[in-house]
Amino acid sequence: MKSRNKMDSAQYNRVLIKLSGEALMGRRSFGVDPDVVNEIALEIKEASELGVQIGIVVGGGNIFRGVEVSAKGMDRTTADYMGMLATMINGLALQSALEKLGVTTRVQSAIEVKEVAEAYIQRRAIRHLEKGRVVIFGGGTGNPYFTTDTAAALRALEIKADVLLKATKVDGVYDKDPVVAEDAVFFARISFTDVLTHNLKVMDATAISLCRDNNLSVLVFNLLRKGNIKRAISGERVGTIVGG
User: N or C: which end of the chain has fewer CB within 10 A?
Assistant: First the structure.
């Protein structure tokens, strides 16, 4: 981990950023908003210029949410594979936006779509990161019944990231949903055990347990505040640290 001497330098050597699919649709009710994707890409570019190695896992909820569809009768395995394909659409959209800004990017997929993305290979992903390329991991874990939160925790561990950055629509972790509860209490820091015990909706329980068992801290922050990705990587006090 790097020192915090300057806010224009990275605190971390390597990070994994988890972006929700919903973040890419902006104010739309469905799909991808190109303006929002471009804004996110610009923030990632600014963060990469600090010298930090960046991996990204993006969800697919703006296009297809397997759990919700399976609850309405569709086979869960089929629904989850459809969700994995949705993450690939988002990953390719983000790659296009990043490369238009001059950021060399690779998309790796946990399911085989060789015409549009590399197969996920841990050693190759690390080599890309070491060469300064942003790596977008699509296709979730490649298995049904696992969320992209779990995929983010898994990939963060596999690439030996210093921290998992969970980008959300709120400022961090609260004891209840701050969007609907005015008396919601904000936590600057909270343990994995407390998150699980109080069923706080930070990430799903599998992802939280995986991070806890492998001592990987999670920084939950508001993606909607311009510049927050760079602030988080620079070590500024932003969001909630989940760890310990």
Answer: N
pLDDT digits (tens, 9 = 90+) for 133-177: 999 999 999 999 999 999 999 999 999 999 999 998 889 999 988
Please name the helix (run of DSSP H) or strand (run of DSSP E) that holds residue 210, with its range, or none: helix 205-213
Beta bridge partners of 240: 220
With contact defined as beta carbons under 8 Å apart, do 130 and 53 qualify?
yes
In degrees, to the nearest 5, what angle opens at C-alpha 192 toward C-alphas 191 and 194? 65
Domains defined along the chain, listed by start = 14-242 (3.40.1160.10)
Which DSSP symbol is given to 185? P
Q: Where are the beta strands (DSSP E) in the chain?
A: 14-19, 53-58, 105-109, 118-119, 134-138, 163-168, 173-174, 186-187, 189-190, 218-222, 240-242
- Classify strands 218-222 and 240-242 as parallel, antiparallel or unpaired: antiparallel
Sign of CA dihedral 222, 87, 15, 52: negative
Paired residues of 109 in beta bridges: 119, 138
What are 156's two structure tokens? 């963060």
CA atoms of 126 and 129, how far apart (whole Å): 5
Beta bridge partners of 108: 118, 137
What does the alpha-carbon distance between residue 41 and residue 181 come to, in Å, rounded to a whole number? Answer: 32
Class of residue 30 by CB neighbours under 10 A (exposed 0-12, middle 13-18, buried 19+): exposed
**Helix runs in 62-147, H state only:** 66-71, 76-100, 122-130
The total of other beta-carbon atoms located within 10 Å of residue 52's CB is 21
Write the CB contacts of 39 (distance below 8 Å, at least 6 apart in sequence).
226
Place of tokens 């060789």: 114
27-36 mean pLDDT: 88
